[in-house]
Amino acid sequence: MTALDLFKALSDETRLRSLLLIQAEQELCVCELMQALEESQPKVSRHLAQLRKFGLLTDRRQGQWVFYRLNPSLPKWANAVIDETCSANRALIQDELTRLNKMGDRPDRVKSCC
């Protein structure tokens, strides 16, 4: 991963908000991101695929659902950029976090959307 790759990946608002939400929550599924971002499944999935292609995210399957988290193999400098961006810009994803919280905690949250 290069700095250009990281900043190119985060230059889109949907990708940036998705990544920050995943950083804040540790792991999210597509339906949780759809609810939080108020976006369609195809749009969310397309942006998640791009983040995965850039190497920022990994996914795991659980039945029919796919859960995304930050790639544990990210370079330290990339993790530091993401951590600092998330910490310093919590207001950027506050509305999305509120929508996630209204869904309840897992497993109730997963039952309500998946």
From TrEMBL:
Gene3D superfamilies: Winged helix-like DNA-binding domain superfamily/Winged helix DNA-binding domain (1.10.10.10). InterPro entries: ArsR-like_HTH, HTH_ArsR_DNA-bd_dom, HTH_MetalResp_TranReg, WH-like_DNA-bd_sf, WH_DNA-bd_sf. GO terms for molecular function: DNA binding; DNA-binding transcription factor activity. The keyword Translocase does not apply. The keyword Transcription regulation applies. Residues 1-89 form the HTH arsR-type domain. Keywords: Arsenical resistance, DNA-binding, Transcription, Transcription regulation. One of its GO terms (biological process) is response to arsenic-containing substance. Transmembrane segments: none annotated. Coiled coil: none annotated. CDD domains: HTH_ARSR. PANTHER family: ARSENICAL RESISTANCE OPERON REPRESSOR, TRANSCRIPTIONAL REGULATOR, ARSR FAMILY. This is Transcriptional regulator, ArsR family.
